[in-house]
Amino acid sequence: MGVSLHSSLKFPVFFLSFIICCMFEHALASTTRHYHFQIRHKNVTRLCRTKSMVTVNGQFPGPRILAREGDRLLIKVTNHVQDNITIHCFNQGEWWNADPEAVIRQALQTGGGPNVSDAYTINGLPGPFYNCSNKDTFKLKVKPGKIYLLRLINAALNDELFFSIANHTLTVVEADAVYVKPFVTNTILIAPGQTTNVLLKTKSDYPNATFLMTARPYATGLGTFDNSTVAAVLEYKIPNNTHHSAASLKKLPLFKPVLPARNDTSFATNFTNKLRSLASSQFPANVPQKVDRHLFFTVGLGTSPCQQNQTCQGPNGTKFAASVNNVSFIMPTTALLQSHFSGQSKGVYSPNFPISPLIPFNYTGTPPNNTMVSNGTELMVLPFNTSVELVLQDTSILGVESHPLHLHGFNFFVVGQGFGNFDPNKDPSNFNLVDPVERNTVGVPSGGWVAIRFLADNPGVWFMHCHLEVHTSWGLKMAWLVLDGILPNQKLPPPPADLPKC
């Protein structure tokens, strides 16, 4: 079934540390839209602290991109800061009084966990639960008897987030820009990098009250995290035929939502299990039914040796590390795609990423004695149009933890998930090959596994990594090399003649 939108539908967009972000609308005709992003430092004040931070066109969060399906976007980016810049759909929505680059630099030097953020934000504002932040509260003003489409993006660096609106229900209709079978919930769970569209139906009459929208972390690991709650306000516009003084408006009842416990894995599991593709004639779920490559990747934390004459803050004096199939990824100094396209990959990467752990063990049971990871720049090579089934298995080496894994270049179907160790003889019989949710970022359950399928029909080199920034920095990432096909439209186009070498 499709989702019909009518005249009362409004389109606010939230960034939950959280961003309420880019708006995309269906179109009758396509057009080319031009944007120019100026990257500059600007002083921004939050929590009574002023700091210089990178902004896009002087804005934090950055400017909204407005486009319709089928449009062409031409975005010119001019970098006025000294650091190299990668443009993503959003920047960090959390607030650090310190410089986040310095925070992660210190963590990598000491080998310990990074300091946590000082606040979460909704559309860049921390809200009333933080010191000195009453005035920095996002307010969403609505009218009674309307339906609003909220576009939610989790732009936090290291935390999955619960989100809820007091005394209101949300109808989930989209995940990662793909329609899902609508379902009603009081609370949503959204991992870093994920997007979720929900319909909010306002009350039929002016309620004479205001309502908090809150978000706080879903945390499953043993490390420290920002254990705070961000709040914004849902405020009904006062009807024209009523009169309220400023004093009376301040005395309106304020309702606060009840969020799940911070470690509520049961809620997380039930929520993700409700996500299903529409699987209709208009929006088919093209799940690969035949699998060419079966792959099994373990993901999780480990350790690496401390350098000589250095004191490290990881377990037993080591450094924290993270890996996929025990390979902690080393970022190359030469671009992977450039080295592949030029045929000069020797010394840059190895095409021999393991299809399963080299040394099997009880992945979610008693951890092995040796927690050290290996290091390398290894790629998984796939012929064009290979259908892939990948099982991602969490490990308990340094404690089980949920890992939101993001794959560049592809959407995939989440065909199964469970707890404990994946059983290749029993678990595939329960896979959903009819209407599994299609997305680009999936949470590997804490102490469990998730199975995805995708078709490798996009030639190039594609990054896959944990969307917890600290885990990516520790090496929980790898890359896929999808080879060219036979036809001209199945090959990488040549780079522009003036493209600078990396």
TrEMBL record:
Gene3D superfamilies (UniProt xref): Cupredoxins - blue copper proteins
Pfam families: Cu-oxidase, Cu-oxidase_2, Cu-oxidase_3
GO cellular component: apoplast
Cofactor requirement: Cu cation
Protein's cellular compartments: Secreted, Extracellular space, Apoplast
Occurrences of domain Plastocyanin-like (ranges): 39-89, 93-237, 360-483
One annotated GO biological process: lignin catabolic process
Record's keyword terms, sorted: Apoplast, Copper, Glycoprotein, Lignin degradation, Metal-binding, Oxidoreductase, Repeat, Secreted, Signal
Cofactor note: Binds 4 Cu cations per monomer.
Xref: InterPro entries: Cu-oxidase-like_N, Cu-oxidase_2nd, Cu-oxidase_C, Cu-oxidase_fam, Cu_oxidase_CS, Cu_oxidase_Cu_BS, Cupredoxin, CuRO_2_LCC
GO MF entries: copper ion binding; hydroquinone:oxygen oxidoreductase activity
Location, primary (coarse class): secreted
Function description: Lignin degradation and detoxification of lignin-derived products.
Similarity-based family: Belongs to the multicopper oxidase family.
Protein name: Laccase
